[in-house]
Amino acid sequence: MSTLDLGVLISGRGSNLLSILHAIGAERLDARVRLVLSNRADAGGLVHAKARGVHTAVLSHRDYASREAYDEALVATLREAGVTWVVLAGFMRIVTPVFLNAFPGRVINIHPSLLPAFPGVHSQAQALQYGVKIAGCTVHFVDSGTDTGPIISQTAVSVLDDDTEETLSARILSAEHTLLPRVLQWIAQGRVTLVPADENRRARVVIHQEE
Ligand code: GAR
Fold this sequence. Notes:
By secondary structure, the protein is an alpha/beta fold. Helices cover 34% and strands 24% of the residues. Strand 1, helix 1 (15-25) and strand 2 (31-38) form a beta-alpha-beta unit.
């Protein structure tokens, strides 16, 4: 078991960040949030972090000439804060190999669909438009694609006949708040192993039983 030194990247409300902070407070998650980093100064999650005494930083992508230059600045800020694992929790930016190579196999993302269905944005609306009966959320390692990295865990929720984007999103979000801290605790416990791709299968994740 090791205490995770987390950097949490956000762009908005920060309810998943709060679920991490609650889990740490309740001793369900062995981690410290070293830094909450946002690309937007108006992200609501920054207020939650500051109210709980968590260090925050804002780096606007608009201040950088390229994605790579922005990612170099993100990496430097995260390293300076002592971050060793990165959580994309509603961070609405694509990260480049510059970022991924700085934290190899140590960047995870939460996404509001059962990947590989409905990657990208407005996943809950995509699910409703398609007419699926089961939706959900996914926590996965980040690779250089959009929501394509190896899946660590998923939670399914029902889609109800009278769901709107709002009601379905709320049901999925509630599942996200349980799933993300749980996966992070598995990582802290050393139970998450990335198995490399072979000729039959893409890279995948195995979760070991608790000892
Ligand atoms: C969450 O639903 C998360 O899954 C989603 O943004 C929301 C952030 O909410 N992420 C993505 O869509 C990434 N493609 P939060 O700011 O309240 O945690």
